[in-house]
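so my prof wants the structure for this chain in the tokens format not the other one, which i didnt know existed until like an hour ago. anyway here's the sequence
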Amino acid sequence: MNIFSKDEIDQLQTIVEQLDICCNFMKDDSVTKSRIVIILLDNISETILNRVCNKIFEWDNYTKWIMPQKYSSTKQVKAKRVFPEKINTAKKQGEISKELLESLNICHKYRNAIYHRDEHNPNIIPIIAKILFLIVCDLVKDTQCGFGLITIGGMGDHVEWLKQYGINNSVVNFENVTKTISEKLKSQVVVDQYVAASTFSSDLNIRINSIKALIDKKLPWKTETQINHLLKWLEFQEAYPHSEDELSQEYRSMNYRIAQGKTDDINPSKYKTIKEEFQKKYHAKVEAYQQKITCAILKDAEEVKKNLVNSSSLTTALHDYFIIDDPLSKFEKYLELIYLEFDRAVQKEIDISRGK
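here's what i got, hopefully its the right format
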């Protein structure tokens, strides 16, 4: 037996204590604390979904001798390691709301941006944290923390903590206990649907105006055709980061020899031909690429901004916002790169004119 193993009630207590911490952190709408909340809530949801998937796989492995297996060993290993695969497995089983699962998947992407890349939008992080908290509480209730419909008898010292939630039964029924705890925790975090939708809408408005100001005041390119052309190159580079290296190997190899002073075996005509061939092939690949991020995103964002206030639920508002937030974030990133490159070119020309 693993000396670190806990029984189901102890594991339930760990999750509830973490949710209590999240409640306290969200009281002052701190962006920093909200980031921590999102990371912690994502961990809770992944832990629960892992238990859900393990139960599915245990049954699948048991019945594979009398019926075709639904989940191969490869799929099982992938689901245990990758969050979206846990979501897909739970969706396929059909016992958890698809809307809830997709909301968890969306919030997981925000968590990844925060945790792995230190990227976050301070305008919406606090509201995302609160919505995710309510979603995770529902996940706790709907899956009984991933343990299912189990009952453990005998109240002892290690379940005294349940009394603060009004639970004094001699046995712990996970269906009743998780429902009671979930409802009490959710009552501590109130998210007004209109306020949430307005927050998302306001964020889009700020970003749309900022993008338009950047284009109008700082970029020499004004038409959508010009900007889309530049965006396409950046999008291709991000989609196929190795393409340039693969196509330019021979050209770069010659540059390396030139830099080392080994020019005896380099024919200028051949050098020019190899360089032009690389540029031609790379250009052809870019031109053939099916672009996704264009200036049309601004019009889409305007439409979503108007419709958000009429969202039918919190999760609908979250889903509608995310659908435009993801491509809009890429548009902002590419546009910023275009501006920085243009600014560097301008500064270089200024330095040259000054004789530097």
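also thought this was worth mentioning. The mean pLDDT is 91.
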